[in-house]
Amino acid sequence: MSTRPPKFRPEAWLASLSLIAICLISLGNVIVRYATDASFAFTEEFSVFLLVLLTFAGAAVAARHNQHIRIELVEHHLPKPALKVVYVLQWLAGVIVLGVTCWYGAKLALEEYQWESLSPGLGLPNWIYVAWLPLLAAAIVVRTTQNLIDRLRGNEPQEVIHEP
After folding, report:
1. Domain range for residue 67?
2. Strand, coil or helix: 126
3. What is the pTM for the complete model shown?
4. Which of 50, 77, 119, 132 could form a disulfide with 18 if both were Cys (CB 3.0 to 4.6 A apart)?
């Protein structure tokens, strides 16, 4: 049995609910298509949106718990003071990329709102879909920063296993 604490963060809930919704929408569409030879019109548009939501929310959870894929060869062979510099450089690279994503995502959402553009499938306002991009990119920055603080203090999460 696992001894790690449960991940009851908003991002974990959002990712879980998105995955459940994708499964239910897809299952419902398959059943309806099999029974009636027709399909729901909204399934693809909502499924793509929920998949993006799931990806970014899951990335925030992974960022908080130091579970992102990275090359750790350098980390294993550095002394502690140099290791802290690497942690800060990793954090800085992530913050730059996510900051740019957040900035341009917010600009895109604002433009979609101002232009009143509609989605091609259902005709819903596009900004509803796009507004989640800067919000979740900012959430990843916050979780990455929390992870950096933990790593600089020497508090690695329990579930991270580093093999020698």
Report:
1. 10-152
2. helix
3. 0.85
4. 50
Identify whether 91 is part of a domain: yes
Residue 129 identity = Y
How does pLDDT run across 87-132, given as a tens digit for each residue?
Answer: 999 999 999 999 999 999 999 999 999 999 999 888 999 999 999 9
Question: How many structural domains does the chain have?
Answer: 1
With a CB cutoff of 8 Å and minimum separation 6, the contacts of 9 are 60, 61, 64
Could you tell me which residues come within 8 angstroms of residue 52 by beta carbon, excluding any fewer than 6 positions away? 129, 132, 133
Is position 69 within any domain?
A: yes
Which residue in 20, 93, 23 sits closest to 57, CA to CA? 20
Of 12, 152, 7, 160, which Cα lies nearest the Cα of 92?
Answer: 152
Six-digit token string for 55: 């990806």
